[in-house]
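ugh ok fine here u go
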Amino acid sequence: MAKVSLSSPVSVIPGIGPAAADRLARLDVTTVYDLINFLPFRYNDWSRVGSVYDAREGDEISFPCVVMTAPNTNIRSRARPTTFYVGDGHMRILLTFFNSPYITRKFAVGDECFVHGKVTLFGTKLQMVNPYIEKKSKVSPDALIRPVYHMTEGLKASFLPKWIKSAIDLCKDEMVCVIPDEIMQREGFVSPAEAYYNVHFPRSFEESEKARRQIAYEELILLGIGMKLAGQGQAEGEVAQRVIPKGSGALSDDIKTRWKGIIGNLGFKLTEDQVRAVKEIQMDLQRSVPMNRLVQGDVGSGKTAVAVLTMAMTALMGKQSVLLAPTSVLAKQHYDTATKLLEGSGINVVLLLGKTKQSSKNEIKAQLAAGEASVIIGTHALLNDDIKFKDLALVIADEQHRFGVKQREKLLIKPDDGSGVNSVHNLVMTATPIPRTLALVLYGDMATSTIRQKPAGRQKITTWFVPSKESSDITDVIRTKLEAGEQAYIVCAKIDDETSDPNVVTQYSDIPDSGITSVMQMKENLDKMGLTRDYSAEVLYGSMNEQQKLGVMERFLSGEIKILISTTVIEVGVDNPNANVMVIMDADRFGLSTLHQLRGRIGRGDKKAFCILVSETRSELALTRMKMMCESDDGFELASKDLELRGPGDFFGTRQHGIPQLRAANLYTDIGIAKEACDAVNRVFDLGGEEADRLKDAISRMYQLRFAGKMEAL
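structure:
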């Protein structure tokens, strides 16, 4: 067998064929390291051995036993049940297995076994249906704390522990420690391989919790320090252009006049938060130290206007700026906003997408090289090596974590032409409100501008929870809005029967995947109701090609499409003031932050807006989340609650937001660990020496395995 490494595809593990590898990929497990990192979300305690004699209906028990009758399969029944009795010395109980013919070959009268399952009644007899059973000689007393993993259709839970054990055994020497010695010794932590073994195969709950805590330290160090090492942060001696000269009298009268004209032509008054953010950015642009600022704001708070005004001032000073958007739909939205806000200013705004015609691309590239285009908006197409700028001074990344570090470096670092300038100013925008301590972990030492106020005229959105998909309230609200000439969104958690939206969560839902309404199913339902005979409806989802997505969005924005049935691809950036009702099907499948972002797509005009959360969940936690959505429209409050409720896992929730899911750490409850761990690493770096060199190498290597590859792939 070829050498197996942590970066090897998961299919190199014995027993994982192409079909299993495809199913694991649905769980974001594609490499051997991903498999090792695929931690249990809870454990079953099988260590409390009971007696059948004391058991009552509904009890879940473990007990040693002896097979008392030969397993027999009823071939006349369609379910083909296999039944036999086992006894524990006090009483016997009937075991029933459906579609498990191998049972008859595996067990015989007199075999000593170990059984775990739930006791039910079959007439007046006690029985267990499909319990766990294994020969006693194969069950270790140290293996009765049983891990439970998130699963996907077609993947057998019993295979995972075998694969994970093989992965750890094959790669244990490659797993290096990223935690400083002082923490390792104080906490009594073990080697990384041993920690992962203990979290997957714990001998006690205490052992599993200690291992999970160690892995949380590891994850938060890789996220908080690894990202900085990969991007090299703001290196000492980096110099950027002073975009704006210092001093109130430094701007020419012409620039002052043009700036006042731009502000006057906005068509709305900036909020105090927007004014403050623009001033903070302009102060940064007066320095030669590269700006490294995060602008975070709630949905609809006007971050794009702040970005456009920043680019406008950069253009007035004769410099170029770039706004990178994660999708072509959002890039086009930003372009439309910028051209509207800067109309009549004399500033040339251009849009460059991957789908832009080659002839237009060549023309835009020539304008960039000549400095004729000063406000440039686009997607990853702007990161191509053949694009040259005459005088690039500012890069704005919308939802920065959706771009890989190496991709951004193509724009962030400029060749030194002898002027001493070797960098550009960097501004990041995010619509995900982030607590300050968390921002420090994710974005390092970035200065932060926060926009909480909503621009005047934004409508308050009424949010309802509907506990049944059959409720007439859903279609009644949609039809009322459509009859008034308005439009509607319907958001679903699946594209079709096979493909889920990557932005869904499962740990809070008590509804099986088969009960989830897909985009395609919703379209069929509307067709059957006759709603689409009177009002045009189309679907939109992330895996459509860019041309199709832009076409659907343009038809929706123009009013040609009345009902847009979509996944969360519309979460960020779609702005249609005429769409004032949103129905979110299976709302319990989305995090609070995602629900809030989705809701922010409506209420952008002067009409009353309604958001309907539909879910048939009976989960107390899920219902609590629905109640919070109905009661609060404060993104910062909901983001904090989202962190608190999610448990171990990622605040952003999915690959759609660009940071892979954390397996052990909780970015709300473990923020103290994050700060402590990152501070300890930085202290070691400051001291230098052998441990500093070892940690830098270890963190860089493990970060590439754990996070970088996933982020670069977006």
